[in-house]
Amino acid sequence: MRLTARQREGFLQAGKAAVAAAIAYLVARQVHAPQSFMAPYAAVFMMSETVYRSFAEAVRTVATLVLGVLLAFVTITVIPNVAIALPVAVFVGAAMGQWHRLGDSGIWIGVTALLMLAYGTAGNADYLQYRVIEGVLGAVIGLAVNMFVLPPLHLRAGRQAVEDVAAELEDLLHAVADGLRRDWDDGHARLWQRRARQLEDVVRGAEHARGRGRESTRYNPRWLLRRGRETDDGTQSLGSLYEVARQVQHITEALHAAAAGNAPVAGEWFTGSYAELLDALAAAVSTHHDAETTRASPCSVAEARDRSRSRRRELVERGELAKDGVRLDWSTQATLLLAVERACDAVLDGHS
């Protein structure tokens, strides 16, 4: 069975967590032999998906450990009865853990206090001191393992997400162009509009993947070694594709309104020529995801934009006459052409 990149990364992080736990346990045994569980526990929690998050997690883990130990010591000092002190410590620890700076780690304040009280060691200052030392030691070891043993780098995921956006856009543009050349109706227009709106989710997913990729480069030694060879995380392409997606949504909305009879698109000559413009735009978008595609030159994209602009200007300034001499309303056509122009401008900006 062939593993996906995410599955391979998961197994790698699991292996690193196991190694970090073993190293932390062995080192902690040299510091204080009995019950050296805190070090491997802290080390495992450092295996985050980015080095930057490991740093943040190290700070939070140490903070919650210290707070939990202090809470256990103070509670048992004030309330010597463990049966009463334990629920009090858990309640106070859970309340303290709500602080947003602690994130998901806040819950471990109460849990740590509970463990110290249940073991009967909460009043032993020396024992608690060793637990804190072990926790700090484990956090440092886990952080070092995640940072220096194949530290996670997620730039490929960001680029793949951008390619997915481009592929979705290209497919939709071709679908609309093919539909305009045939008999299309309100059902087709609704389907195009729904697909265009779904592009928002695809773009948001790409934004998240790109942000995760950029975060994975922070404090990452692996990135420092390869940054000169690999710098494209898809940021510029995604910005261009996002604007194209917005304009495609405008196009599908206008076509849906036209199909509903609110703003008719007159003449096969218009839909045919407009379909050609959409195909040209799709060809330009395809260069963001298909390395085998002949790259659409900026000149060809600019030519499509200029053709659209020229036709729109003609419609706006002169208009067309129907057979009975009555002037037609070309606002829908002008809206469609303007959306293509803006999408072409976005593609050209992405090439610059």
From TrEMBL:
A Pfam match: FUSC_2
CC annotations in GO: membrane
Signal peptide: none
Membrane topology recorded in Swiss-Prot or TrEMBL: Multi-pass membrane protein
Region Disordered, residue ranges: 289-313
Keywords from the named record: Membrane, Transmembrane, Transmembrane helix
InterPro entries cross-referenced by the UniProt entry: Memb_transporter_dom
Residue ranges annotated for the Integral membrane bound transporter domain, each copy included: 23-145
Residue intervals passing through the bilayer: 62-93, 105-122, 128-150
Amino acid composition bias (Basic and acidic residues), ranges on this chain: 303-313
Protein name in the entry: Integral membrane bound transporter domain-containing protein
Organism: Actinophytocola algeriensis
Taxonomic path: Bacteria, Bacillati, Actinomycetota, Actinomycetes, Pseudonocardiales
